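Private note to self, pasted from the team thread so I don't lose it. Backbone tokens:
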């Protein structure tokens, strides 16, 4: 994530033609971008700023969000965009409500209703046809050093090509307490098989380490309930999924690749032993898929 403390949001807004913002507050939680909440002309907006080397990523995200919006997916509208010191900057509409994670933390009794809506929204994303000029195989390489697993996926005759979010989890989905009213952070979006996106969300809900000492009992139960509700909503809206062992193994490999970059870093609690359950999960699904 860009170092927010070194950036000047007022200067960035000025580069977008906005000099009369009345309130600017940093927002925590962004991984790919620095984010501020901006009050301008009586309305709230989000200012998102990428690193200079993320220009292609930012352009792709904007295109994907436009495609998703045209298909009826609730995504933020882009109000202004430009460059500030080589950094892509976007002022987008603010999505009211809370993240699904925060809403369920405050009102856990809504887990089935909102969890099913969470799954149904993801199935809706997967009905969006793939843009013809986007790479349909790039997502497979996310598995890293897994040649046998990747080859099986390349050779899979049933592989489909639809729009994938690939970071679809309760911190990137907004709710008004009744329904899903925003899907955020499309920087990972790819074109590929919807089963990969389903498997990645499943892995995040089931096995991603959330803290250095494991889940407290209430969180463990909450994760399982949300997982069941999400799965129920997705399958009801998207239909049955098959050959999932390959995709679950892929999702485990992707998580190991991603999380390994944080191991033993001074600004993160993650240690190598926290990934042991993820490796066990990946290896179990590889065996079930017939990969030694």
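Design output:
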């Amino acid at each position: 994530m860009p170092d927010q403390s070194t950036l000047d949001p007022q200067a960035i807004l000025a580069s977008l033609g906005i000099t009369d913002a009345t309130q600017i507050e940093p927002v925590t939680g962004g991984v790919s971008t620095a984010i501020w909440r901006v009050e301008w002309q009586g309305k709230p907006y989000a200012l998102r700023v990428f690193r200079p080397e993320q220009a292609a990523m930012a352009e792709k995200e904007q295109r994907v969000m436009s495609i998703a919006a045209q298909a009826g997916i609730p995504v933020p509208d882009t109000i202004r965009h430009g460059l500030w010191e080589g950094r892509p900057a976007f002022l987008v509409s603010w999505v009211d409500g809370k993240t699904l994670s925060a809403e369920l933390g405050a009102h856990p009794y809504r887990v089935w209703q909102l969890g099913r809506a969470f799954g149904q929204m993801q199935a809706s994303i997967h009905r969006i046809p793939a843009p013809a000029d986007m790479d349909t195989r790039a997502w497979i390489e996310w598995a890293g050093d897994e040649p046998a697993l990747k080859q099986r996926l390349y050779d899979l005759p049933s592989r489909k090509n639809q729009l994938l979010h690939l970071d679809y989890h309760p911190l990137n989905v907004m709710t008004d307490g009744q329904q899903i009213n925003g899907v955020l952070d499309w920087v990972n979006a790819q074109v590929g098989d919807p089963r990969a996106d389903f498997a990645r969300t499943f892995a995040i809900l089931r096995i991603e380490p959330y803290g250095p000492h494991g889940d407290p009992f209430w969180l463990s139960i909450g994760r399982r309930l949300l997982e069941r509700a999400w799965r129920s909503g997705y399958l009801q809206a998207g239909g049955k999924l098959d050959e999932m062992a390959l995709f679950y193994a892929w999702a485990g490999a992707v998580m190991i690749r991603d999380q390994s970059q944080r191991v033993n870093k001074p600004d993160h609690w993650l240690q190598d032993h926290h990934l042991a359950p993820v490796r066990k999960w990946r290896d179990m699904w590889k065996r079930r898929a017939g990969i030694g």
